[in-house]
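Hey, can you fold this one?
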Amino acid sequence: MRLQNKAAIITGAGSGIGRAIAILFAREGAQVAVSDINKETGQATVDMIKEKSGEAFFVSTNMTDPVQVKSMVAEVKKRYKKVDILVNSAGVFLVGNIVDTTEEMWDKVMDLNVRGIYLSCKYCIPAMIESGGGSIINIASEAGLGVWKDLIAYCVSKTAVIALTKSIALDYASKNIRANTVCPGTTETPMPLKWAASQPDPQKARRAMEEIRPANRLGKPEEIAYGVLYFATDESPYATGAVLSIDGGATV
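Sure. Predicted structure:
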């Protein structure tokens, strides 16, 4: 098992990519803290892990609230005595250009996609230092590597995630803490599928998402999870500040 005896926090683990990461990490031997704002879906992820004899517990967390984020880290330290891995997968996707995007929409995207990651890293890093180091993997997006039409807040937030991650990699390499970014392409998760379903022709909207990438399909959450797993394991000790695209070739 590639993560035996590792304690991992996965935010946004109640669905989509975060859930796939949590399940894979548990299968690889990690002790998993499933963090999500949605108690029902978060607990469902825990139940899926335990059905396969994995170790996990749910911690309800609003990632934009520093008190709750600090409590999340404290709960994991209390239960598992350490924090080895942090995966920030919680995020929100809103459509709009600069005129259409309201201030409330802008703040919502920045609060969760950027501030939430800032807070979780801020409070996890001291715990990692205490236990001799750790690995941080932040989930950005193909939209952080190139501008996509009518996604201004989302693109800016995901570009910020990449810069934030590189800054952590630079500042904490001497503390044996690695920080890397995974940039998924559009994946079969609730966020893009909900957007497609809201369009006048949902099937056409889905095909449009598929056709902009050479692979001519959407990604699967498990395919993203395996990329995250590499950065979490001891197999990647020289990887820090890296940006891994898993997008079916869309950014080519």
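Residues 24 and 35 are 15 Å apart (CA to CA). Let me know if you want another pass with a different chain boundary.
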